[in-house]
Write a structure and sequence with these properties.
The radius of gyration is 20 Å and the shape is globular. It contains 9 helices and 9 strands. Helix content is 34%, strand content 20%. The relative contact order is 0.13. Helix 6 crosses helix 7. It has 2 domains: 168 residues, Rossmann fold (3-Layer(aba) Sandwich), CATH 3.40.50; 95 residues, Pantoate--beta-alanine Ligase, Chain: A,domain 2, CATH 3.30.1300. By secondary structure, it is α/β, with parallel strands linked by helices. The protein binds adenosine-5'-triphosphate, pantoate (PAF) and beta-alanine. Beta-alanine binds next to loops. InterPro entries: Pantoate_ligase, Pantoate_ligase_C, Rossmann-like_a/b/a_fold.
Length: 290
């Protein structure tokens, strides 16, 4: 008989209501929050691993937030896999899973929301109007309900991370925001809950996103114009792939403001891309130092 190589961890406490959360709060100590929409994968595991050791309790929230989805987006078909998510949380040593229903998070009409300002109108905000506002509003609610000392977000969603950092600064929220590097599969595709939508051919086409970012990164000594043209060349080929890659945007932006950097920019920048493969919209980015 083979002995288990790792000791099983205790299953997390699952809470669904504000009252249950409030009961746990006094004994939680310093609290780390990892907000998610579930369908947990290696990217989420990376966030949880980063959170462990930074706090007494790690809370993972699982909530598919209707407010950040547009009317023609994938809210209804978004993967919901609570049982396997709980198993992942147990393996990763999560203490508490907060999995509220929509009524708990939105008990009435949402008349007051958190507006992201100009940063929320560009790139993701242009192609997903209301997305950043929906994210900031639900993240504020999660912060108020869970009252974390520190919260972890993925750099894969770089603009989301930037607007959340800006919100906590502008609204004086006493929470440290930590960005965690993007986790990729062996073929380079950033892990994402939406990757389950991709068929094998679509997945092959989708690799053009990470290849374009890599081409841009390889050209970083040539400056912004060279970076963008190297990345664009890869995406141009992918437009004629089967199935084709349909690009929403490719941009080289300031990591804090998400405005385009100038042609002579030096210092930090993020090369960001968003594109459709079939019915699936994917985003990815790479941080660069020019
Ligand atoms: N590959 C990844 N590497 C690092 N962090 C990630 C990765 N994928 C997701 N995250 C982070 O996990 C958190 C929860 O994200 P979410 O549950 O929306 O997963 P997702 O895979 O980004 O989903 P989607 O496919 O809907 O974009 C966010 O902070 C997100 O940036
Ligand atoms: C931060 C978040 C949990 C808010 O719904 C979501 O946008 C996500 O999973 O990245
Ligand atoms: N991963 C960010 C959440 C969203 O795309 O709606």
């Amino acid at each position: 008989m083979t002995e288990p190589t790792t000791s099983p961890r205790t299953a997390p406490v699952v809470v669904r209501t504000r009252e249950e959360l409030a009961e746990l709060r006094p004994s939680a100590g310093r609290t780390a929050l990892v907000p998610t929409m579930g369908a947990l994968h290696s990217g989420h595991r990376g966030l949880i691993a980063a959170a462990r050791g930074r706090a007494d309790s790690v809370v993972v929230s699982i909530f598919v937030n209707p407010l950040q989805f547009g009317p023609n987006e994938d809210y209804d078909r978004y993967p919901r896999t609570l049982d396997s998510d709980l198993a992942v949380c147990a393996e990763e040593g999560v203490d508490v899973v907060f999995a509220p229903d929509v009524e708990t998070m939105y008990p009435g009409p949402q008349t007051v929301t958190v507006h992201p300002g100009e940063m929320g109108a560009v790139l993701e905000g242009e192609f997903r109007p209301g997305f950043c506002e929906g994210v900031l509003t639900v993240v504020s609610k999660l912060f108020n309900l869970i009252r974390p000392d520190i919260a972890f977000f993925g750099q894969k969603d770089a603009q989301q991370l930037a607007v959340i950092r800006r919100m906590t600064r502008d609204l004086c929220m006493p929470i440290t925001i930590v960005g965690v590097p993007t986790v990729r599969d062996a073929d380079g595709l950033a892990t994402s809950s939406r990757n389950v939508y991709l068929g094998p051919q679509e997945r092959r086409s989708a690799l053009a996103l990470s290849r374009a970012l890599l081409a841009g990164a390889d050209a970083s000594v040539t400056g912004p114009v060279g970076i963008l043209s190297a990345a664009r060349a890869v995406l141009k080929e992918a437009v004629t792939a089967t199935p084709p890659v349909v690009v929403d945007y490719l941009a080289l932006v300031d990591p804090e403001t998400f405005t385009d950097v100038s042609a002579d920019h030096r210092g930090e920048a993020v090369l960001v891309v968003a594109a459709w493969v079939g019915e699936t919209r994917l985003i990815d980015n790479v941080p660069l130092t020019l």
